[in-house]
Write a structure and sequence with these properties.
345 residues; mainly beta; 4-stranded antiparallel β-sheet; globular
Length: 345
């Protein structure tokens, strides 16, 4: 079964919907969270609604971590925090939000816009402001991304710095527990990378974080004081990055004539698991239930975590909006015509 490849599929079940094109979908605690500017709806594997929550958020964006989700207004001020049972908090920031992340206890970290300045603020799930840090390009830099440890104690921020024509990335860790009490601004560790851009940071588990860079990625380990433990550098231009709690992946251009892309998958220690060339146009890539899913509006490429291309072909069920792996060779497919369960055959 691990090595089997498929060339077709069949629809096992479907739930026709009229508003799929106006909504977005994401995996959430084993279910599917459907959201739009009007509301958020949690659906089980059969498409049944478990709960519905009004949002009233213009241009909503979402970040999910384990059993928690934050839906926020990009360049707006409204924030709604959800868990598997529904809303647990709602609040407004005093400045427009550029990006937000959530911890599994519901704490929210956000990068806020303020003219020439930016702010990195930290809130409880109900909006109590825990930390407010003003930043400038010259000190400590422009915040590009941020991540929160699962316990909510450590905040990771990557900054972009410019000084004398030299560009740098600056990665800082702030501990709001005992380890950071006697440190200036609660900063417990920091790293500078000259001439390198680090646009994305994520926590993979309780003590492991990753910073994606334009030449690879860096792993940091430690619950209280994260330390750099491994650096993976690549010479190719990185087209895409993706990750899960088990894997880190990157996509490059392939030098093979009949396959335009090459995918490299690493384990959490930074060891290469496999490299695989493939030929599939995609605009979304992610890991779902240990399978790598790549798709655009009309086609899907599914690859196992062993590098086996399980399926690479067209979907005839409407414009593809999202795809999730259920089990074995079954997948949940969200299209412009509704939500469907498909099986590879």
């Amino acid at each position: 079964m691990d090595n089997r490849e498929y060339d077709s599929y069949k629809v096992l079940a479907e739930t026709p919907e009229e508003d799929t094109a106006a909504s977005k979908y994401t995996e959430f605690d084993g279910n599917i969270l459907k959201y739009s500017g009007n509301d958020a709806i949690l659906m089980n594997g059969s498409g049944k609604s478990l709960w519905s929550q009004k949002l009233d958020i213009e241009t909503p964006d979402i970040e999910v971590f384990e059993g928690m989700a934050v839906i926020y207004a990009r360049r707006g001020t409204k924030v709604v925090v959800l868990n598997k049972d529904g809303k647990i908090g709602e609040f407004n920031t005093d400045k427009p939000i550029l990006k937000a992340k959530v911890a599994k206890q519901g704490m929210v970290a956000a990068i806020l816009e303020d003219g020439e300045n930016t702010w990195v603020n930290y809130y409880s799930a109900t909006g109590e402001q825990i930390v407010a840090a003003k930043t400038r390009v010259d000190s400590p830099g422009y915040p590009v991304d941020l991540a929160i440890s699962p316990d909510g104690m450590v905040l990771m921020v990557t900054y972009f710095q410019v000084e004398g024509g030299t560009t740098r990335s600056y990665v800082a860790f702030y501990n709001f527990g005992n380890a950071g009490q006697n440190q200036m601004d609660n900063m417990v560790s920091s790293y500078t990378y000259t001439g390198i851009l680090a646009p994305q940071t994520e926590y993979l588990d309780d003590s492991l974080a990753v910073a994606f860079r334009d030449n690879g990625f860096v792993l940091y380990e430690g619950k209280q004081i994260p330390k750099e433990v491994n650096t993976v550098e690549v010479n190719e231009d990185i087209i895409s990055t993706f990750y899960s709690d088990k894997y880190i992946g990157m996509v490059f251009r392939s030098d093979e004539q009949d396959k335009q892309y090459k995918l490299a998958l690493y384990n959490k220690k930074g060891r290469l698991k496999f490299e695989q060339s493939f030929d599939a146009e995609y605009n979304t890539i992610k890991i779902s239930n240990d399978h790598i899913l790549m798709y655009n509006e009309a086609k899907v490429c599914i690859m196992s975590d062993k590098g086996v291309v399980k399926y690479n072909g067209s979907i005839e069920e409407g414009m593809i909006l999202n795809l999730f792996k259920l089990d074995m060779n079954r997948y949940r497919l969200v299209t412009s015509r509704g939500v469907k369960t498909i099986k590879l055959t």
